[in-house]
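**Backbone geometry record:**
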Amino acid sequence: MPRIFQAMSSASGATNEPRDVAMHLARTLRGDSLNRIAAKFKIEKYSTVASAISRIKMRIEADKDLADRVERSKREIEKRQRKT
């Protein structure tokens, strides 16, 4: 699978787009709790997960290219889930 997400720099420091997207998808596709996502990503505070999800949602709304990439990933995950 091609790399469609990448780590980027922001004014507040490095952001990890793939990680933020993965947390967003865990929340939206699976309905995982913030605490569960935090545990899976080895994050101490669930508020960090909430911030990452909020941040990526805003970026998705503002960046059509990112929105398209997330939607493609989401469709691919859903398609693979139907096969199993």
Summary: The two ends are 19 Å apart (CA to CA).
